[in-house]
């Protein structure tokens, strides 16, 4: 099944966040939509893969799809954001900048933690107490904290992550955001919940969700 940017079914859901300016309102509005489009019990139990059409996602936008009842953040990272991921000033502030802890599959064990640098795929659950972090991609926009470089901020206890889901130093969260199994079915379609054909990797082997 492929999900576009304007549709949803009883099995899957999608919403897009373009930035932080209306993040609180967006999340508040998303709650009833999630409830309405909650997959049925058989779908959740099966944990089948979900396809997403990347052509619907503009640079700087985030889409959220559901896989195994978990929110999956898919971000089209602009060139400037990709460059920031290797900035020494950012790396010095991260707890696990090289992703040493097993929070990602082997094909995402790289500096951008994804198959393609422009597309980030993360489980949107804070590794502290399971809250859903908020998306603040723009360093020049409305910021959740001082000296912000873009990424995710958990409003519950203040944990911060960069746009690759790497956790900052000095926050409650102990690990980077997990990367789920995923691969490109075509140039424009990404499949969440399934490894590339030549890879065997068990999502349950991650350090923490």
Mean pLDDT: 80
Report Rg.
16 Å
Q: Per DSSP, what share of the residues sits in E-state strands of 2 or more residues? A: 15-25%
Annotation field: number of helices: 4
- How would you classify the helix and strand content by structural class? alpha+beta
Ends: how far apart?
26 Å
Number of domains: 1
What's the gist of this structure?
The chain is of the alpha+beta class and 209 residues long. The protein has one domain (2-205): 3-layer Sandwich (Rieske Iron-sulfur Protein). Helix content is 14%, strand content 21%.
Describe this structure in words.
With 209 residues, the chain is an alpha+beta fold. The protein has one domain: Rieske Iron-sulfur Protein (3-layer Sandwich), CATH 2.102.10. The chain is 14% helix and 21% strand. The chain has four helices and eleven strands, in the order ββααβββααββββββ. The chain has a four-stranded mixed β-sheet with strand order 1-3-11-10, with no helix packed on it. A four-stranded antiparallel β-sheet has the order 2-4-5-6, with helices on one face. It is globular, with a radius of gyration of 16 Å. Mean pLDDT is 80; it is low at 1-13 and 18-40.
What key attributes describe this structure?
single chain, alpha+beta, Rieske Iron-sulfur Protein, 4-stranded mixed beta sheet
Topology readout:
Elements (H helix, E strand, L loop, with lengths): L1 E2 L10 E4 L5 H14 L4 H6 L3 E4 L8 E6 L2 E7 L2 H6 L3 H4 L27 E5 L10 E3 L14 E3 L6 E2 L20 E3 L4 E4 L17
Parallel strand pairs: 1-3
Antiparallel strand pairs: 2-4, 3-11, 4-5, 5-6, 7-8, 8-9, 10-11
